[in-house]
Amino acid sequence: MTNDAATPDDESGSHKNDRADNLGMKVTPEGDFAKWYQDIVQKAQLAENGPVRGTMVVRPYAWRMWELMQRFLDDMFKETGHENAYFPLLIPKSYITREADHIEGFAPELWEVTRGGNRDLEEPAVIRPTSETIIGEMMSKWVQTHRDLPLLLNQWANVMRWERRPRLFLRTSEFNWQEGHTAHVDEQDAMEETLRMLDVYETFAVRDMALPVVKGEKTPGERFPGARNTYTIEGMMRDGKALQSGTSHYLGTNFAEAFDIHYQSKENKRELCHTTSWGVSTRLIGALIMAHGDEKGLVVPPRLAPHQVVFVPVMAHKEPKVAEECDRLAKELKALGIRAHVDHRDQKPGFKFNDWELKGVPLRIELGPRDLEGGTVTLAQRLGLDEKVVIAMGDLAADVPARLEAYHDFLLTRATEFRDANTKQVDTWDEFVEQVKTGWASVLYDGTDETEQKIKEATSATPRCIPSDFPTAEGVCFVTGAPSAFGKRVVFGRSY
Fold first, then answer.
1. Burial (0-12, 13-18, 19+ Cβ within 10 Å), 331
2. Is the whole-model pTM more than 0.90?
3. Hey, what's the torsion of the CAs at 317, 318, 321, 325, to 10 degrees?
4. Confidence of residue 10 (pLDDT cuts 50, 70, 90)
5. Residues 39 and 298: beta-carbon distance below 8 Å
6. Please, what is the average pLDDT of the chain?
7. Are the beta carbons of 242 and 493 closer than 8 angstroms?
8. CA 62 – CA 66 distance, rounded (Å)
9. Residue ranges with strand state E in 218-293
10. For the residues 453-482, what does the mean pLDDT come to?
11. DSSP characters over 289-357
12. pLDDT tens, position by position, 386-428
């Protein structure tokens, strides 16, 4: 096998010694998961803390991932008939207070604005924690008759919620997201919308993030404030915790009553609209890190990789044609729609190999003078290949697209096997306590607030969802012995 990057005359020397000490990973996910996560965010140059507590600066590499997420999701939203709009960042405080359950749920998280310039505001404003209220106010003006329905809106925006224990991407006081808001003629139409968008999120998670998710309904104690039903997709991270990765809410007529969202029916009756809301956020970047990363750093699924393929010229200072050939091959891949990048930085090859491994690039292609002479390149895959492979330059355009698809499938299978191995059906308290230390537990429980609180206080585990695809199951609660609720087992786990 020809590999100029590993030969004695390669000036890079040892790959490990070639890298600055402060760039390498210091901990493993098995050793200290929280510190490992922080290391990746910092050393892969994903984000930093902002100057105001709880805020976040998203660096270009991570923002490109978010742009790709936006692109794929936005296309799916438009395919299902939704239109993008934009609504104000500041909301009159009186709007928030109209829906009692909503304000009660968000009151501890609100950021208030009381002054504009050097004058006190006549009415305080809140920075949107979510936009049901302001959009509800607009819907009441835009909806007049049944012909105006369904009204299918989406907004890409930032929101703010006071966060006591911020953590980059996972919980910050300001974050970016999309929030869908729709109005419908009746419950059936609104529920179909709620579940349709949950399916969109599930498809995105599996197809684009290589993230297997459990899809289902939240228990009453876990519902969105003001919702009649909340549905979720839950992903398992590499430490066995759950991350809520997307939610869809049927709001009934709660917000329609509060904001007077009525329509004239075909029978000329004045009817309340049924509304929904649904959203995902930059928390998905945190999910990507924690679901796929390893002891070497970030692992990025191909569809969300800023660079799907990185070319590293080796000894280009001695043979300029090496860099030229890398540029030509990258251009050839770009013509196929592949995000290819040539690393022309003035750094030794070993540094570059480790840097792109840390940043999780799916495929790295090395090319040196002897590769050039032999008409080949040497390919390394971030995970799933024990050794590098040599590929003829003429075969690269055919090889790379299929290899990226296979790599996605490998990551999805890896994550699915991990989740399934760490999810168990349990029926006793002792089994439950042990299981939720490292994974998820599937249980029968009575569904009461008291039992839910007891479980949370003792184990930090909460009900993640009542899975849609679980079979019916009857029996008694593993905590109280009372009849189980919901007619199914419920998945519990610790979460972010």
1. exposed
2. yes
3. -60
4. very low
5. no
6. 93
7. yes
8. 6
9. 229-236, 242-252, 262-264, 270-272, 274-281
10. 97
11. HHHH-BTTB----GGG-S-SEEEEESSTTT-THHHHHHHHHHHHHHTTT--EEE---SS-HHHHHHHHH
12. 899 999 999 999 999 999 999 999 999 999 999 999 999 999 9
* Fold of the 4-23+301-418 domain: Rossmann fold (3.40.50)
pLDDT tens, residue by residue, 295-341: 999 999 999 999 999 999 999 888 899 999 999 999 999 999 999 99
Domain boundaries, the chain: 4-23+301-418, 47-292, 423-493
Length of the chain: 496
pLDDT band at 48; cut points 50, 70, 90: very high
Q: Distance (Å, rounded) from C-alpha 69 to C-alpha 88?
A: 23
- Give CA–CA dist 243/258, Å, rounded: 32
- Encode burial over 265-280: b for 16+ CB neighbours within 10 A, e otherwise: eeeeeebbbbbbbbbb
For residue 108, name the pLDDT band (cuts at 50, 70, 90). confident
Nearest to 216 by CA among 407, 442, 21, 435: 442
| Omega before residue 150 within 30° of 0, cis | yes
Do the first three CATH levels of 47-292 and 423-493 match, i.e. the same topology?
no
Judge: domain 47-292, CATH 3.30.70.2860: no
Query: What is the full DSSP assignment across 134-196?
Result: HHHHHHHHH--BGGG-SEEEEEEEEEE---SS-BTTTB-SEEEEEEEEEEESSHHHHHHHHHH
pLDDT tens digits, 61-93: 999 999 999 999 999 999 999 999 999 999 999
Q: Which fold has domain 423-493?
A: Translation Initiation Factor IF3 (3.30.110)
C-beta of residue 225 within 8 angstroms of C-beta of residue 104:
yes
Instruction: Count the neighbouring beta carbons within 10 Å of the beta carbon of residue 31.
Output: 10
- With a CB cutoff of 8 Å and minimum separation 6, the contacts of 192 are none
Q: Which of 283, 288, 293 is nearest to 208 (CA)?
A: 288
Contact (CB, 8 A) for 123 and 92: yes
> What is the CB neighbour count within 10 angstroms for residue 172?
25
Tokens of 428: 């006793």
Pick left, alpha or beta for residue 466 (phi over 0 → left; psi -120 to 50 → alpha; otherwise beta).
Answer: beta
SS3 406: helix
